[in-house]
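Posted in: Structural Biology > Protein-Ligand Complexes

Title: Requesting predicted complex, adenosine-5'-diphosphate in pocket

I'd be grateful if someone could produce the 3D structure tokens for the following input. Sequence and ligand are given below.
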Amino acid sequence: MTETAFESVAQIEPAEAETRTGTVVMKFGGTSVADPEKIRRVASRLVEAAERGQRVVGVVSAMGRHTDELFDLAHEVSPAPNPRELDMLVSVGERISCALVAMAISDLGRNAISLTGSQAGIVTTTAHGRAKIVEIRARRIHEALDAGCIVLVAGFQGVSTAYDVTTLGRGGSDTTAVALAAALGADACEIYTDVDGVFTADPRVVPEARKLHAVSFEEMLEMAAAGARVLQLRSVEFARNHGVKLHVRSTFSGEPGTWVAEEDERMLEKAMISGITHTLDEALFRVGSPDLAELFTALAEAETSVDTIIQTDAEAVFSVPVEDRGATASALDRLGIDWAEQDDLGKVSIVGAGMKSHPEIAARTFATVAGLGLEPRYVATSPIKISFHVPRDAVERTVQALHDAFELSSAEAERQHG
Ligand code: ADP
Ligand code: ASP
Ligand code: MG
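-- Reply #1 --
Done. Output follows.
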């Protein structure tokens, strides 16, 4: 069994020695800007924040399913779209939505300016489709804020060190927002989405899941890595490394959502488990008796994000996010070793800072899985996570059964405190 190690993220220093106070970064996901009415509502929310005297930076995702449509369009034209051109195409969705929000803000009588990732000074690596932010040159944003504008930044994108447009992987607008919050020294980063916060399980799978009042960075890292789509993994890494306070909340109500912050004893008092997460969006590779050093050097050079590494006598098994599938397959081919992709499994994980050194959690987890007549495969643990694979069609009932077994629909699971 192995532990999940998270990659280190780039050191984004506040762009200028002086960081201004009173800055807030507010990020709105695709559902929040899905139509003209919702765009106007987002504009009002940004204006309200500016009227409270804050310096406001809005980060928006593409409208509704626009990014998916652009990917589909690319694949209708080309079976294997050129990665550079694909980034030129899919980055467009966020340009559209941020320009529309800026227009709606002007109609409310405030100055606003929309910026592409490149104009906002977001510099990335050259890995198209999964680029990492290496630096933020925030001068233009500061100037616009100083001039009294609300600044809209197109999420999900940047400009590479080779001057090409890049994108940050699916869900990457979260990372744009958190990285900007770090670079601007913002008081908080607010993530507005289509659910009320971070839940004890995906509320679309477990309807009685509870909204968590607070989760620690470590728990949120594990939950994001294990498929809780509500925050992109890299955004949580940034937030932890730069001490950015994250508030995940609903775009449709004024209710407080979930705070992601440093671990607080009160989080642990109430419930040991923060949630059950699952993913079907991972590629699982099996490699026959590899030289591990050679294998992982090749994967690191291909800039893939490897998770869940299991080594047995005969093989190594590891997973990567779907967007790294192509790069991983090419790296394995270059090494000339035998490999196969296993695509009939999905991953279920149970996460909680309070489960450290509580072996009864593992006992209850595996008894529950056995009770469903399932045999867990590729078990991996960290001090605050147990994950394993089951057949894809059994993933949702496994999540539901574990949610029941750990009584996560009870009020205690919320960790409500003052
Ligand atoms: P956005 O477009 O706002 O970025 P996403 O679709 O990326 O929204 O993320 C929100 C979705 O994440 C929710 O609609 C929900 O189905 C899913 N989700 C998965 N796990 C969780 C969880 N534990 N808590 C909250 N939402 C979750
Ligand atoms: N629009 C992009 C996506 O669909 C980025 C995001 O929503 O955060 O992945
Ligand atoms: Mg998202």
